[in-house]
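hiii so my PI (J.) wants the whole complex modelled not just the main chain, which honestly fair. so below is everything: two entries, each one labled with what it is. i double checked the lines twice but i was tired so who knows lol
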Amino acid sequence: MTEDYQDLIELSEFYILSQRYEEAIKILKRAEKIKKIEPRLYYNLGIAYEAMNEKGDARDSFRLALKLDPDFKSAQEHLDRLIEE
Amino acid sequence: MKQFAVIGLGRFGSSIARALSEKNFEVLAIDKDESLVKDMEDVVSQAVVLDATDEKSLRELGIKEFDTVIVSMGESVEASIMITLTLKELGVKQVIVKAKSALHSKILRKVGADRITIPEREMAEKLAQSLASPKIFDFIEVSDTHGIVEMVVPKKLVNKTLADLKLRDKYKVSVIAIRRKVPFSKPDGSTDFREEVIIGPGGTDETIPGDVLILVGRNEDIDKIRKL
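here's the output for the full assembly
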């Protein structure tokens, strides 16, 4: 059965809200294999990494989100904060 | 309300004057460069153009009425020494001086500076510390042997209550606070988080991935936890 990309994104958000960040990252990596060009995927990945204090991976993820959508305000705010720390 | 004067409005001086003003303190900003003073006019309570190496001008300004005077003449070693000496002679209670080097700092101490800061060195030490131990965000030395440290909770200690961790029994280290990112859903459906600080957490508080523990204890004991 083909996994639905949108379902995976929503599931990752459920995991983030439940503070189960490692599971969120696993789900997002699965979603990445289906569709790579989605800023929300990388934004969620950035959020999960940042919540776990994996700052390097968080920065890379927010940068990817911004590459796909340069006007992604939340991603820019998170990236700015991570760089300034 | 405490009153501060800042002498020298370069990068460090202007930043500290701005930061104190934002904390609602009365700040007098002084520099002999008119353009630097003009930039601070709308930021601080009072900004004046004055050559602070001139003792008479400082006395007339009533500088000794200020609780703390911060001298930030990093580029001019001679001027910062002269000004520090004058301020102490005039009776200023606390004089904090920005130094350029260890030698500069030694002379400032001799002429009566109450506190000396070498911001570049302090920043460099902090940066080196964070590069050496990426999971340690901050370290405050309490004594030669004890410190307070901000540390990302090691994986082995995640998803356990503080009572289960028994850090005080096993390592003689106490958790004084936990900084945590609390996720929430934004109106547009995306997720974000805000920071929450749990002060004096209890035995039933549970650690979650990414928590930053603020620990107090002996440096070598804290180091044992860091290596877990």
